[in-house]
Structures are given as structure tokens and as C-alpha cells.
Amino acid sequence: MNRKSMQMLTVAGVALGAMVLTACNPTLRTHGYRYTDGEVPEIQVGEDTEATLLATLGSPSVRGTFEENTWYYITDTREYLAYLRPNTLARRVIAVRFDDDGTVAEVNEYDASDSRQVNYVARTTPTRGRELTLLEQVLGNVGRLPTDQISGQDNLPGGAGGPRRND
């Protein structure tokens, strides 16, 4: 091998090695509400209102479905590594409950240790009819077409019905 081809192989090897190493580098992503400058917001019970909270923190991540007067600010930090399922490193939920006047009545903070696994139900709803096999699906319409449509005697090209014009 000459010197030029050795240099090209070396450059290709270094580039391939760099791609392999960067593919295994984890990526951190933060989802949801992001605190400005990493500061934890200070919410005063009895003093802050919905308007002051909107001005300070912005819109909540989620509003309560059943508790309409509860706002949730959710932060979730995940680590992504190549093709693997993401791993949750940190989770923080701030739940702010308002009274009927719109002032803050209660503030609760939750982290990943407060979460629970939810088991999904794998039931399916039965449908009417029966399931067809692959062969029944492929050959299902064979013999069902009317012969007058195939012959083209009574119809215009493209399937338009009606009598033909005599020009």
C-alpha cells in the first residue's frame, strides 16, 4: 500500500471510531416546565393568585381534570442512550390548588418516588362478524362482480352509467 491510501484508511478509521463513540453518548432532555436559571419558584399560600402565578410561572403543564382549581407544573428529565428506552432521571411535580376566590390555598411538591406504576388493561372489545383468513381476504370478491359491468355493453368508459350517445 502506498502512503496516500494509508492516510485515507487512517482518516476513515478515525471518523468511524468517532461515530461509534458519539452513538453511545447519552443525551439528556428536559420535558415540561423549565425553571428559569434553575431556581425553584416560591409560591405564597394565601397571597398569590391565578393571575400572579400566570405572570410568574406561565401556563401550567396540566390543569386538574377532576379538581378544576388545581394546576400542575411538571418537569421531567430523561436520559436517552442510542436505541434503548429512555430512562427517567428526575421528575418534579408542583401541584397548586386554588380556592373559590382564585388565591392559592395549597402547594404540594412531588418527585419520582411519589409516582406509581399504572397497569393497563389489555382487554379488547369484540366486533360483530367473523375474522377472515388471508386466503378469504384475497379471494373474497372473486365471482361477486356483475357480468354486465365487466362486458361494458351498457356503461360508458370509467363506470359512468346511462345510455351511450350516438355521434
Automatic annotation (TrEMBL):
Cross-referenced InterPro entries: BamE-like, BamE_dom
Which superkingdom does the taxonomy of this entry point to? Bacteria
- Name used for this protein in its record: Outer membrane protein assembly factor BamE domain-containing protein
Tell me the first and last residues of the signal peptide. Answer: 1-23
Region Disordered, as annotated, extends over 145-167
Give start and end of each Outer membrane protein assembly factor BamE domain. Answer: 33-105
The organism named in the record is Glycocaulis alkaliphilus
Claim: Cytoplasm is one of the keywords in the record:
no
Assigned keywords, A-Z: Membrane, Signal
The record's section on Pfam families has: BamE
Q: What ranges does the record list as Gly residues composition bias?
A: 158-167
A GO cellular component term found in this entry reads: outer membrane
